Every structure is written in C-alpha cells, then in structure tokens.
Amino acid sequence: MAVTIRLARGGSKKRPFYRIVAADSRMARDGRYIEKLGTYNPLLAKDNEERVKMDAERVAYWLGTGAKPTDRVSRFLEAAGVIAKKERANLKKGEPGKKAQDRAEEKAAKVAAAEEAAAAAAAAPAEEPAAEE
C-alpha cells in the first residue's frame, strides 16, 4: 500500500480548511484516510501560529515507514524543520512571456549602450580651459 501525506479539503465553498492526513494514495482526496496528522487554514495570516498545526512526531513516524509527502505538505514540513529543505526547479509557468523577455533584452541593451558611452566620455582627455591673461 502506497501511503502519502497530503491535504484533505474541508470547509464550505470559498472558505477552505484542510486536514493534513496520512492516506492510501488510491483513495479520493477527501475520502478515507488512515490518520489525521494536523490542520492547515489558509485564511489565517501567514505569521499566525494556528495556520499550520501538525503532530511532528507522528509525521516523522509516517515518513519513517515510507510515506511520501505531497509538494505542499513537504513545504510545511521544511518550514517546521521535520525534513531537510530540497531544491525545486522553477516551473515553466514561472517564466516571463515572450514579449516580457524581449522588453528585458531591449532594456539590457540600452543600459549597456549607456554604460559604454559613459565609459568613453570618462576615458576621453578633458580639455583644459585657456588661461586668460
């Protein structure tokens, strides 16, 4: 049986509330689970202690038995210090679009040209003003 540590959604429409659960990966998202490990309330402020609560001891037990956390749950576990932080690849949808990339290239070219002009002006010898008698 493949066990995952994941979120099971509760709450009403547009008022989400999640339970952090250990569940068989074949069960439905909100269906039967083996054990409730904690809660996550995304409506609370990010610095609120009640936003993510979990039993770290039981989570460590399930990780020791081979349970795989989902990406979101693994982020919670990293923040709590239960597991080591891992490197994540930036997904393609995190990259700017074609037009934004073109604008960035044009801006970089303008900045480079302005820096070249400033360097050339600084390197040119300054003319001494004629001394008046």
CATH class of the largest domain: Alpha Beta
Main sheet: strand order:
4-3-2-1-5
* Record field, number of beta strands: 5
**Principal-axis shape:** elongated
Number of helices: 3
Q: Which percent range describes the beta-strand content? A: 15-25%
Distance between the termini: 100 Å
Number of domains: 2
| Average residue pLDDT | 88
Question: What name does CATH use for the topology of the largest domain?
Answer: S16 Ribosomal Protein, Chain: A
| Helix and strand composition category | alpha+beta
Using the CA coordinates, give the radius of gyration.
28 Å
Catalogue the unreliable spans: none
What assembly state would you assign to the polypeptide chains in this entry?
single chain
Give the biggest sheet: 5 strands, mixed
CATH architecture of the largest domain: 2-Layer Sandwich
String of helices and strands? EEEEHEHH
Going by CATH, what is the homologous superfamily of the largest domain? Ribosomal protein S16
What's a concise summary of this model?
The protein has 133 residues and is α+β, with helices and mostly antiparallel strands.
Characterise the protein shown here.
The structure is a single chain. The protein has 133 residues and is an alpha+beta fold. The protein folds into two domains: 3-80, Ribosomal protein S16 (S16 Ribosomal Protein, Chain: A, 2-Layer Sandwich); 94-122. It has helices at 56-64, 71-80, 98-123; strands spanning 3-12, 15-24, 35-40, 52-54, 68-69. A hairpin with a 2-residue loop joins strand 1 (3-12) and strand 2 (15-24). The protein is elongated. The model has no long low-confidence stretch (mean pLDDT 88). It comes from Pontivivens marinum. GO terms for molecular function: structural constituent of ribosome. InterPro entries: Ribosomal_bS16, Ribosomal_bS16_dom_sf.
